[in-house]
């Protein structure tokens, strides 16, 4: 069907557009970064597809992103010779939000512009940010390899709907024309555009070109010449030497690869030599994405082979518990025609994954152990955002278990607040001289943990206990039985043996009490029948008359509750 059709945006798109236009206006220049980022991705995609099918190049393999403007028409155009889009792709990509985490995002919106603006940033602004500065956007595109009559024209005023029709388009790729709103005339200037490009898009690998300008004496203004001028550095940022890259450039590159709007929390950049050679540039975002708990979400580390883009979210490059890491790995050894299937078996990939994992854990370790207050603060922020994901690593990554254990942070009876700030090393540093074990309690909520009757004897003796109330904590402690030679034990399990913390007098007292109350405990045991294995006198309690304990080798009471809730 070639005739013009009018289609409605998905409801969420309409909402997003409204929000974006109102809350991101003060940041309006970012639309250009988003459109250039998409153009660059489209070139990368074509380069990759053409590895298997060179005909897709249609004789032109020099990628370019062109920015031009028309002062009279008040339009700004961003064009690329990347992979382009088919009609169906246009309808999906520019009419819906096809992203995991969308529902969560919309459920978090508050209606408060300031708060929502930062949420949109977190969610990703993308193509729709065009409507911050434009009141009409026209897209012409044709997919690489398709017939010239398979061009698509999409147009919208960013309100409720868009039109779509088939057109002739001899050249492949995408051209996006923004019809600027009133008051955006300052964007119709080479000088202004170049400065925006250099600020946000300098790291883009493809050349971003504009027509040169010269002074016209008659018109008394700058006029365009026929010559192209490349505005950005147009080289792979990660291949440059660290000393030649500013923090600003690292941050802008992150926004492109991470599809993020905010600065990253931290990053690491290194060239690894030896048996396998590769460059890694890995970032930890400042905030968790909306789809972090969706195990099918994009992974975020891109794979390049000798600077040629190979694939997005190469899941083999990072273990699942580090799925929040963004960035690139550029391998010197892999073949260009590497496929996902090959990656699964590749020894090179295995050693790259091990190397990247170590690198990320090392980066977190140095943040956590830094003497610098700002760095330490960063680690606290990291823990707040990603701590729960990192905990998964305790069961997933046996080889790095000790490293991960050292990165864990807990609440404890020392501060008695829910803030997770205590490391196992801190805990050990504060242990009583005669204390041999690390004690913890697990419960459904922080308050339940904090008020657990099992803690009474520990509070009385001034022994710190780690307070666990996260669902994954049960799982963590099932894998973390020991840290630096100290056993981790639940205060709610078994016949609690406090070892040297217990004095002889207390033991004697308990024994005699057991005799004294024999009749009572037997009576209770009888009336509880099957429901209790054993009833005994304890010295654990100081205020409460009784408490439940699990047998040493049984699942804990809290885990039993979790399993029951899960229907097992
Ligand atoms: P994101 O880049 O995070 O995927 P965007 O909103 O920026 O989100 O873009 C949505 C989708 O539209 C892209 O994933 C891509 O498939 C498509 N797209 C956007 N711009 C282009 C382009 N210049 N060429 C080809 N496809 C594009
Ligand atoms: Mg994008």
Quick one: overall form? elongated
Distance, first to last CA: 54 Å
Major sheet, described briefly? 9 strands, mixed
Proportion of residues in helical segments? 25-40%
Question: Care to count the β-strands?
Answer: 19
Can you tell me the residue ranges where pLDDT is under 50 for at least 5 consecutive residues? none
Radius of gyration: 30 Å
What ligand molecules are bound, each kind once? adenosine-5'-diphosphate, magnesium ion
Strand content: 15-25%
Structural class: alpha+beta
Q: Average pLDDT value? A: 90
Q: Count of helices?
A: 18
What order do the strands of the largest sheet run in, or round the barrel if closed? Answer: 1-6-5-4-7-3-2-8-9
User: What's the multimeric state?
Assistant: single chain
Task: Sum this structure up briefly.
By secondary structure, the protein is an alpha+beta fold. It has 18 helices and 19 strands. The strands form three sheets. The chain has a nine-stranded mixed beta sheet with strand order 1-6-5-4-7-3-2-8-9, with helices on one face.
Description of the molecule:
This protein is an alpha+beta fold. The chain is built from 18 helices and 19 strands. It has helices at residues 11-23, 30-50, 87-93, 102-108, 113-123, 190-200, 247-257, 340-345, 347-368, 373-396, 401-407, 424-429, 446-450, 456-461, 471-479, 504-516, 518-528, 557-565; strands at residues 5-8, 65-70, 75-80, 134-142, 151-156, 161-167, 173-180, 208-216, 221-230, 264-272, 278-285, 301-305, 308-311, 326-331, 411-412, 438-442, 466-468, 482-483, 486-490. The strands form three sheets. Strands 1-6-5-4-7-3-2-8-9 form a nine-stranded mixed sheet, with helices on one face. The longest helix has 24 residues, at 373-396. The radius of gyration is 30 Å and the shape is elongated. The two termini are 54 Å apart. Bound molecules: adenosine-5'-diphosphate and magnesium ion. Residues 34, 38-39, 42, 80, 82-85, 93, 124, 126-127, 174, 259 line the site of adenosine-5'-diphosphate. Its main location: cytoplasm. Belongs to the heat shock protein 90 family. Residues 1-340 are annotated as: A. Molecular chaperone. Has ATPase activity. It comes from Sulfuritalea hydrogenivorans sk43H.
């Amino acid at each position: 069907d070639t005739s013009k059709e009018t289609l409605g945006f998905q409801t969420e798109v309409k909402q997003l557009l409204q929000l974006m236009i109102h809350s991101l206006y003060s940041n309006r220049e970012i639309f250009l970064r988003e459109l250039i980022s998409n153009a660059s991705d489209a070139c990368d995609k074509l380069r990759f597809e053409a590895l298997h099918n060179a005909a897709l190049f249609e004789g032109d393999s020099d990628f370019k992103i062109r920015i031009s403007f028309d002062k009279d028409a008040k339009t700004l155009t961003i064009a690329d010779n990347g992979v382009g889009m088919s009609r169906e792709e246009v309808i999906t990509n520019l009419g819906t939000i096809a992203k995991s985490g969308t529902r969560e995002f919309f459920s978090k919106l508050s209606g408060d512009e300031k708060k929502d603006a930062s949420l949109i940033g977190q969610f990703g602004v993308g193509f729709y940010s065009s409507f911050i500065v434009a009141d009409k956007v026209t897209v012409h595109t044709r997919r690489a390899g398709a017939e010239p009559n398979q061009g698509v024209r999409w147009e919208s005023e960013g309100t409720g709907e868009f039109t779509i029709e088939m057109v002739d388009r001899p050249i492949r790729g995408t051209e996006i024309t923004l019809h600027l709103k009133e008051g955006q005339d300052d964007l119709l200037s080479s000088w202004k555009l170049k400065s925006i490009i250099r600020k946000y898009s300098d790291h883009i690998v493809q050349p971003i070109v504009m027509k040169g300008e010269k002074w016209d004496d008659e018109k008394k203004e700058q006029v365009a010449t026929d010559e192209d001028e490349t505005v950005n550095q147009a080289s792979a940022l990660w291949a440059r030497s660290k000393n030649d890259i500013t923090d600003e450039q690292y941050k802008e590159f992150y926004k492109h690869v991470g599809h993020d709007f905010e600065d990253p929390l931290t990053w690491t950049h290194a060239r690894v030599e030896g048996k396998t050679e590769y460059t890694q540039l890995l970032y930890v975002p400042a905030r968790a994405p909306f789809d972090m708990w969706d195990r099918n979400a994009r992974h975020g580390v891109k794979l390049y082979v000798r600077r040629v883009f190979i694939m997005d979210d190469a899941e083999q490059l990072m273990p699942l518990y580090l799925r929040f890491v963004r960035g690139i790995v550029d391998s010197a050894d892999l073949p260009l025609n590497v496929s996902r299937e090959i990656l699964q078996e590749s020894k090179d990939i295995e050693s790259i994954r091990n190397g990247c994992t170590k690198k990320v854990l090392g980066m977190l370790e140095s943040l956590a152990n830094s003497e610098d207050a700002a760095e330490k603060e960063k680690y606290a922020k990291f823990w707040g955002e990603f701590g729960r994901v990192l905990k998964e690593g305790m069961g997933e990554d046996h080889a790095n278990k000790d490293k991960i254990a050292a990165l864990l942070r807990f609440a404890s009876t020392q501060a008695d607040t829910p803030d997770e700030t205590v490391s196992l090393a801190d805990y050990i540093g504060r242990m009583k001289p005669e204390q041999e074990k690390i004690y913890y309690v697990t419960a459904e909520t922080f308050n339940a943990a904090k008020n657990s009757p099992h803690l009474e004897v520990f509070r009385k003796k001034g022994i710190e206990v780690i307070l666990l109330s996260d669902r994954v904590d049960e799982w963590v402690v099932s894998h973390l039985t020991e840290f630096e030679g100290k056993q981790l034990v639940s205060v709610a399990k078994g016949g609690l043996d406090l070892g040297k913390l217990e004095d002889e007098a207390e033991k004697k007292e308990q024994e005699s009490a057991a005799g004294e109350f024999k009749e009572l405990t037997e009576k209770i045991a009888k009336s509880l029948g099957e429901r209790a294995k054993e009833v005994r006198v304890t010295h654990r309690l100081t205020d409460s008359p009784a408490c439940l304990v699990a047998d040493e080798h049984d699942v804990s009471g809290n885990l039993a509750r979790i399993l029951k809730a899960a229907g097992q």
